[in-house]
Amino acid sequence: MGHFDAIVLGTGGAGSAALYHLARQGARVMGLDRFPGGHDRGSSHGDTRAIRISYFEAIEYIPLLRRAYTLMG
């Protein structure tokens, strides 16, 4: 294989973002995932997805969060 500056476990939303930003900074990166790309077993899928309605950082997000709950049906 070769030398990597970082290896990211999980290439879903957060892992892919980490890989992207590390690579943009010039790091040699490798992403590993247990499942093939495009799978539906990540933290952003399924009935166990956690969405908070309370959002300390910015009250403007609360209507978006309420809409997300509505769309989860």
Quick synopsis:
The protein has about 70 residues and is an alpha+beta fold. Helix content is about 30%, strand content about 10%.
Please characterize this protein's 3D structure.
This protein folds into two domains: about 1-40, no CATH class; about 45-73, no CATH class. It is built from two helices and two strands. The protein has helices spanning about 15-25, 60-70, and strands at about 5-10, 30. It has about 70 residues and is an alpha+beta fold. The model has no long low-confidence stretch (mean pLDDT about 85). It is elongated. About 0% of the residues are buried. A two-stranded parallel ribbon has the order 1-2. Helix content is about 30%, strand content about 10%. The longest helix has 12 residues, at about 15-25.
- Low-confidence blocks of residues: none
Rounded to the nearest angstrom, the distance between the terminal CA atoms is 45 Å
Rg: 16 Å
Helix content range? 25-40%
Would you tell me the structural class of the helices and strands?
Answer: alpha+beta
Q: β content, as a range?
A: 5-15%
How many DSSP H or I helices?
2
Could you give the count of β-strands?
2
Tell me the count of domains. 2
Strand order of the largest sheet: 1-2
| Shape category | elongated
Outline the biggest β-sheet.
Answer: 2 strands, parallel
**Mean model confidence by pLDDT:** 83
Reading the helices and strands in chain order gives EHEH
